[in-house]
Request: fold
Amino acid sequence: MRMRLLGLALLAVSAAVPARAQAPAPPPGPPTVETMDRGLINLGLMAGHAFQCLPEPEREAAQRRLLAFNGILVAEMGANAAFRFASSFGAGASHEVDRSFCERSLADWRKLLHDHGMQDR
Reply:
C-alpha cells in the first residue's frame, strides 16, 4: 500500500514538473561586449562579401554607403566598433568570393541599407 501511494505521489509530481519546464524562457538580457563584437565582425564580413558580389558599376555607390554606415557606427558605438566593422569588411572583401552565397549576402546588404535609411546615399 505504501508503494502504491509513493508511486501515485511520484506520478503526480512528475506530471507537474514538465508543465513548469515548458514555461517560456525569460527574455535575453542586454547584449554583451562579446556578442556585439561578434555581430560587428559578422556584419563586416557579410558586407565585404556583398561588395564583391556587386557589379562593378555599383561599387562606387556602395563605398559611399559603407563610409556612411561606418560614420553611424562611430557616432553610435564609438571608434572601436567602427574599426571592428571596417577591418572585418576588409577581410570579407579580400577573400575569393563564393558566388553561391551572393544572393543571400546582397539581400542582407540591402536590408542593412534599408534599415538605416541609406539606400539613396
About this structure: The chain has five helices and no strands. The helical segments are 2-21, 33-53, 59-77, 79-94, 102-115. The mean pLDDT is 80.
